[in-house]
Amino acid sequence: MKFLITALILICGSVSAQSYQTGDLTVTNAVSYPTTGRSGAGYFILSNTGAEDALVGVEADYPKVMLHKSMMKDGVMTMEHQMRVEVPTQGQLNFAPGGYHVMFMGLKEAWGVGDTIKATLIFEKSGRLDLTFTVTERP
């Protein structure tokens, strides 16, 4: 019975997941997590079924929104602003904790489970893609 309930939850969660597309690029699983401070992050999976492209910007209604990459330097986790993220031909990029992510800075209110964050990804060749991040519990 436990297995059946878990399977149903996973199926329902994947059915309700929103996907966004522009040209050969598809974004799925756009999520954020609850915040307590003045910044938050957005994560997603970016799939490309066509030629190479590049994510060159992001816009949202916050004082500062940037593409970042987390990385370990000298034993310390740091974040580095990314002016451009290459999207490989016939490839996939995971924007996830500990790697690439969208950084939203200057939040006036904390984000809670169920909140939504609207943003626009800007691609070099494929143009603009509007999407909505849904705030969910951290896994």
Q: Key terms for this structure?
A:
single chain, 11% helix, globular, 1 helix, 139 residues, Immunoglobulin-like
Question: How do the SSEs run, as a string of H and E?
Answer: HEEEEEEEEEEE
Helix coverage percent of residues? 10-25%
- How does the major sheet shape up? 11 strands, mixed
From the 3D structure, determine the CATH topology. Answer: Immunoglobulin-like
Tell me the domain tally. 1
CA-CA gap between termini: 23 Å
Number of strands: 11
Give the CATH level 1 class. Mainly Beta
The overall average pLDDT, rounded, is: 90
Query: What oligomeric assembly is this protein in?
Result: single chain
Write up what this structure looks like.
- The protein has 139 residues and is mainly beta.
- The chain has a single domain, classed as PCu(A)C copper chaperone (Immunoglobulin-like, Sandwich).
- Strands 1, 2, 3, 4, 5, 6, 7, 8, 9, 10 and 11 form an eleven-stranded mixed β-sheet that branches.
- Strand 2 and strand 3 form a beta hairpin.
- The longest helix has 15 residues.
- The chain starts with a helix and ends with a strand.
- The relative contact order is 0.27.
